[in-house]
Amino acid sequence: MYDIAVIGAGIIGCSIARALSKYRLKTVLIEKEPDVANCTTKANSAIIHAGFDAKPGTLKAKLNVLGNAAFDELCQDLDVPFKRTGSLVVALKDDEIPTIYKLHEQGKNNGVPAMKIMGPDELRQIEPNINDDAQAALYAPTCGIIGPWELAVALAENAVDNGVEILLNSEVENIIKVENGYVLFVNERNIYAKYVINCAGLHADEINNMVAAPNFQIMPRRGEYNIMDKSVGKLVNTVVFQCPSKLGKGVLVSPTVHGNLLIGPNSEDINEKDDFETTKEGLKYIYETALRSVKRLPAGFVITAFAGLRARCERGDFIIEEAPGAAGFINVAGIESPGLTAAPAIADYVLDILKKMQVEMVEKPDFIKKRRSVVRFNELTNAEKQRLIEQDSRYGKIICRCETVTEGEIVDSIHRNAGARTLDGVKRRVRPGSGRCQGGFCSPRVMEIIARELGIDIARVVKDHPESYILTAQTKELDIDNSDDSGLLT
Amino acid sequence: MQAEYDIVVIGAGPAGLAAAIEAKKNGIESVLIVERDRELGGILQQCIHNGFGLHYFKEELTGPEYAERFINELIELRIEYKLETMVIDLTKDRVVTMVNSRDGLMTVQARAIVLAMGCRERTRGALNIPGTRPSGIFTAGTAQRFVNMEGYMPGKRVVILGSGDIGLIMARRLTLEGAKVLAVVELLPFSSGLTRNIVQCLEDFGIPLYLSHTITRIEGKKRLEGVYIAGVDVNRQPVEDTEFYIECDTLLLSVGLIPENELSKAADIKIDPATKGPIVNESLETGVDGIFACGNVVHVHDLADYVTLEAQRAGASAAQYVKELLPRKRTGISVRAGQGIRYVVPHFVNVDNLKDTLELFMRVDDVYKEKNVIVKLDDEVLATIKKKRLVPGEIEHIKIKAKMLKDKAVSSITVEVQKEGA
Predict the structure, then answer these.
(1) CA distance B123 to chain A (A)
(2) Which of A8, A409, A422, B422 is the most exposed place for a label (fewest CB within 10 A)?
(3) Which letter does DSSP use for residue B189 in this model?
(4) pTM metric for this prediction
(5) What is this model's ipTM?
């Protein structure tokens, strides 16, 4: 029996779960995937937007600006990499100049602070590698870059620190309304909760339709990206946007918080909610389009490609409201860009809805606001490294050469609350395999550590999904039965 | 553990082992070799196939056997080594920062350094192959480690992209372990592997080799389910109507090796974009005083035996440097890769350091048949060498008598493949 069930452990579900954990509420966070942050949260532009894009008066506009302002404190409390780099929207043709003035006005109406229009010279002082065609730009200093999945992981961890339960590999199959609440059918288990918050992202419409009449539809829109090597990570200093079009904010070129370079996305409406394929045409398009804004973008430095799906809905704005005819069931849906930026404000907005519903919200005096800090070995001074290894020798064993990740960091990522259970889970938390060799050297070692720490056979360590096995059998032995994955579930 | 060494060798694969041994044999007492893996020998330890040592020992050994000979010698010579120790920084003043569990963080001043970090494999990301991102995609070397070191199989139905030697070796290895290798797919119209490996690893097992083909798409949401393969045109672009599908659970990538020079860059060492390794002279000294480099960190070699020979020269040179016997004239003859040659190593030659001969190592940029390789001293043709066949997968060697370079005041050596009709 829970007070509140949150469906979906992406950035929105994790933000709401953490916000709820400040109160004396019994909260459960339910996720169908094997890890938090495993869908749209792990595949997006990783930008904290300033807030000039959204139409004034929309929830998107309001929550973007409010959310943006929350990130300094949030990321400090949760020890999440975040940097306010500022952004530029670059006008590459004469007829694009009115667009940046329009965005400037719109930003002012939305309450975005400190923006300004820059001429060609000033622009080049900030971005020396900007294309020669660039004539002017809208500069917004409050724009930032972040590790989105690291934020979601940190929010989930802190929520668990404060008493929230997380159920992974747990797909909500059906929901029925009962007296004073709902029963959720999950993995042959019945979960009873007084209130339900639907943050199911791409599947939010399906969850809504379990309890309410269809009132919105999620239509996936795919975006493809490339990550480039750190050796070209300083090609730009800010997030460089081109002028927006109907399909979105266009292709951006951005540094990442880890020092790589990100280019993308394209924008393509697709039919399936699990179609994360990159395409030859898409990757070609983002590279060629990125070349429009930044010169000297070297093609040979790509280290990986990925695709993410935007949970777009036809209403054009965020849907954050009680589902029609379903008391106590709140939809948080259609959270496409700037959803990541708005996440902290969306969580507060949901708290307000719950308060209006007369949910008893008593603050916990013992709420732990800060997450135990994360060791990032390669960011320490030599003296700090030495001290750390003296305390725990596992910090002296470097497992990932490219990103300088130690055994100590990997073990910690597994044993934290909402800890890693998979190879990708470890990668997202502490980065082994994110570098230029993409796990070629370290993946066998990381798998060995996961197996040892979880007490399972190495052949049962998976990449991500329970069926994404990596090894099939011991050499010269019979096949390992991969069907029993119970050892992997939390 | 001392804070100062005469020579620190970074990496204990075939290059590092031979360099350290040679330095010690040249009278340097204080030599330290640093290895990041659990044992000495580097990648040789996972190369359990034979074919090592044919040139150097005149007998056929496996990788671990080949390594063992050097490891035994290293131990007999009482050369100090550190395992599971990672060098995390190197300065141009030859200060090495390294870390391990036992000693913590160590800072060591060396009089000379030998870089022997080897190389890494190119990945799927570097090729930007479109499709999904399931499990079941491995670089050939990672799969080799799983099978030969950890004792686990990476899959059952295997396609291999790239016909580099590791891919060919793994085609045979996985077949012997009961997997079905369905195809080896090579973008180029020729294999980049050794001929003997094509015969012994593919032909002997009836594994089809698709030349001028590539993988156009990867399919499978969780585990790999299959790959699309297409023929490519002369510009190496896929030809659409040639596309076909192979159902498989495993894809190995053997698509090239990249010298690992992150430390070299930290020490401000200049890198040759063609080799992706340091620019070196005849003594294997880099552009930074007292820092030498050898093996696959300089350029990717065909055989471990050649790595050993190069590393011995680097180790001996480092020893000479420490003894202040290595002539310090920095300017010298520049060596140029002309038409048809992708790179030549060394990049510079100081004739004072040459004994009897200068040996040049090079790779061509394409397949050439019945062509002449021309060596020029400045603008004058020194030699024209007839070649039946030149392939990018095999390194060519040319020896030049030191006397020829000393007699004339030569400023450049150029190697080129003679143009058609010349």
Answers:
(1) 7
(2) B422
(3) S
(4) 0.93
(5) 0.93
